[in-house]
């Protein structure tokens, strides 16, 4: 899943009907009234804005201005977090992983995965984006979270950190499996 589209989807889900109407009104100078009348959701509006090249993964100023105009500072901070996390220019390829430990963790950790990922220091915004991208797949949520942690840490992503976080969450059996 593309992190930028996941972010826009998350924004769309959190918009109230009145906020969407306000956003449509604010976009009238850029997008014709007839096109805006057909928009029924935030996603529809974001698609039009992308078609007009007003927003994109490297063009976020217009979107930030819109969100500020409707007083959605929570979404503005998510947008800024997205930029700070380097998602704007993130390459599409996945970093090398310590495949075996991640595989063991994904097989062994269930619904308590968020506790582990928080222990590793991954932000709530990133977790929310991953959950939105894979809403019905717990294992994939955990896998993508571990990948995200690894991408964030880069060369500093160590198996010992995974083991320490697992032990901190009282998941000693999983930590033991990794150490073997």
Automatic annotation (TrEMBL):
Death domain ranges (all copies): 98-180
Domain of life of the source: Eukaryota
InterPro entries: DEATH-like_dom_sf, Death_dom, DED_dom, FADD
GO cellular component, one term: CD95 death-inducing signaling complex
Family matches, as Pfam families: Death, DED
Record GO biological process: extrinsic apoptotic signaling pathway; positive regulation of innate immune response; regulation of apoptotic process
Residue ranges of every copy of the DED domain listed in the record: 3-81
Coiled coil location: none
GO molecular function, one term: caspase binding
Name the UniProt record assigns to this protein: FADD protein
UniProt source species: Columbina picui (Picui ground-dove)
